[in-house]
Amino acid sequence: MALHITTDFIGAFERRFYDFASTSTSRQPTDKIAVIAIDDQSIANIGRWPWPRDVHAKLIDQLAAAKTKTVVHTVFFFEPQVDRGLGFIRKMKAILGAPPADPAIPPSPSIIHEQLSQVVAEAETALDTDGKLIDSLKNAGNVIVPSFFTLGEPQGKPDSPLPAFALKSALDENTGFSVAAIKGQQPIDGLGIAAAGVGHLNQFQDVDGAVRLEPLLVNYYGKAVPSMALLAAVKSLNLSSTDIKLNQGESVQIGKLRIKTDGAALMLPQFYKGRDGKPAFAVDSFYDVLSGKIPASKYADKIVIIGATAAGVGTQFPVPGHPALSPAETIAHITSSILNEHFIVQPSWGVWASLGVFLLVCAYIIAALPRLSAGAAAVGTALFFVALLGIEFGLLSGAALWLKLVFPATLLLIGHLALTTKRFLMTEAGKIKSDEESAETSRMMGLALQGQGQLDMAFDRFRRVPMNDAVMGNLYSLALDFERKRQFNKAEAVYQHMAAYNKDYKDLQSKLNRAKNLSETVLLGGSGAHPGGTMLLDGGAVEKPMLGRYQVEKELGKGAMGIVYLGKDPKIGRVVAIKTMALSQEFEGDELVDARERFFREAETAGRLQHQNIVTIFDAGEEHDLAFIAMEFLKGKDLVDSCKDGHLLPVPTVLSIVARVAEALSYAHRQNVVHRDIKPANIMYDLASDTVKVTDFGIARITDSSKTKTGLVLGTPSFMSPEQLAGKKVDGRSDLYSLGVMLFQMLAGVLPFRGESMAELMFKISNEDAPDIRIIRKELPDKLAKLLAVSLSKRPEARYQDGELFARDLRAVLSELSGSLQSTPAVVPKTGPVSSVAAAPVATPEFEKTVARPVVAPESKPLGGKATDLEI
Length: 872
Known about the structure:
This protein is an alpha+beta fold and about 850 residues long. It is built from 29 helices and 32 strands.
């Protein structure tokens, strides 16, 4: 609205649209109008402007002879044309100065007077071009000449009234139904009297200089002077000015033609567009008609309009559909518009219709537009906008009605753009805020994922956050975590991402170079997991490696399938032992998948065991192809050295250790877990604290049928039970057999069964009875020998059925010894295998009798619902 009131932007748009739409009509001009132009060709051939008026007279005579209907001459004849008559002056001088024929006889004065009178008369006739033009006008009787008025609201009386010849064409008008004028210019009296009519030639220019309106009447102090176009239409219809009727505020009527106007008798004429590259009105050259090149007969019974089009002679104005048009051509369009009733009307209801559309647009912008989505709003506004302009275009080009809808259409467009801009700015502000919140959320999510050890996902989150110093710190910490996990290629990627923002951040360049070098030389799961390699690298510039959430501190030892490290949980400060296994180096294809599944299944199994004599499992995981188990870090060492001659432990200590192991196995068996690999290497003992721990449940198998395969031989052959060697399904009694073998070795310093080959060893374990321990150590009590014989029985049902029973009998023997038994050197036969020392059973008849009597242990939780023990 402010744009419409304070500027002419919308008005200019309205006028341009009017020009386009009004000239897009199919209306055609009348063929009864012709234009003769005083063009550049005519000026070049006839002479410089202004021409002598007898030239105009000659053309009018030609047109009169051709019986044209009306001639409209638009050249102003406001001043008489005076010629110096130099030729005639010289002629008179020659007459007066000529010597007489006979010098003796002087010329008669009467003769000189007569000659001069003839010359003067001839000169007067030749030089009076106005008179010639007046004669031609009188002879033609159908020529209209122009007058011109200075428009404005009169304040007093005129300087001079309209001459009588002008009043013949004027009307009495005191209602104000015309454009007022304060000053007028009229043709010279002779021409005005001789002319068929005098009409005004005032071009009513719009604010942009274009001519769109025709003032049909100019009110000069109560006298309405018709325009040349109106007067031409009147004369062409054989009417006079008295036949012009004024319908105040509505129209001007000539005969039966009713020309609709506004309240000031302004008409919106139809300006015609040319067709097929030709102008609406053909313009002939003045010279061509004058010279006879174009016969005057062409203009018979037509309205002929004469006017200047040459450069510098006449003024041209822009009109709808034409960038520049001369007054003569403009009159041709207007006259045709009057005669064909091709005028354009602004209906009286148009103001109210425009106001209604304006209010409708306001309602749409205020009420409907904010409720629509962006796409729907754009479509709705576009359709509304096109509809408004389409209605105006259709009315102008089809019905010749001008309903001004450009303003509401522009308001609609500006309103939509303003609301869209507001939405955009609000959305942008919200987006910025949302982006900031999203960035912070991504950063916090990245930190959470980093804390959980999901470094790849954390890096993905950090990359979504705009870079700043805080994010640089987070990325730096993340890169260090990648270094700890020995993922140097990913650490390099993080450092490169940081360098793109600030390459001078801390020691970024040195970190980047080192990570790049190490990423090309270090392969995680390769040397770091191989029995001969390590994850620890020399040099303090690289962060200590991480396995899961554990930081690797140092190497503790190496096993058959991996390395054991000392680790630390940085969150709670817990020190752990980390056993690693490079599964990808030991297995491939489906076997690797099965091994990985078995590994985590066994870790789950071990994690279920919570006993004071079983090593606690804290965690299990996999870094690339390197599997690891984090377990309780123990002081002391395994019992391998304690089974060697010369390093044997005291018998009470051995019995105490084995009893606690039996109790631990009893607990594991109640959890449906079979160790399968009981041996001195898997028993940790700390002499200082007298602590015993069973380790390496890593190869244990869950006895549930859904998670167990049968026929798989696991464990160490020297300590395997006969049924385990035979590939049969084993239970806890197999572990108790292996514990019996370990007890024999810890007491005797040698294994009960030995062979030159694996086949011989397995044959002896399966078929031969174990030797009596007293052959090697005579000082051991008989009950201990019997206990060993029971635990090493070939048939599982003849052994201890539960570890608790085994431990109870061990403690009974230990109680009898009462600490009096002293460790003596073991006697090992120097020839032949141990099994050959005693081929016959060692048990006494009483012992065999005792073996045959099963006793149910009330405190035990037997496997399969039954448990038996041998009472010693």
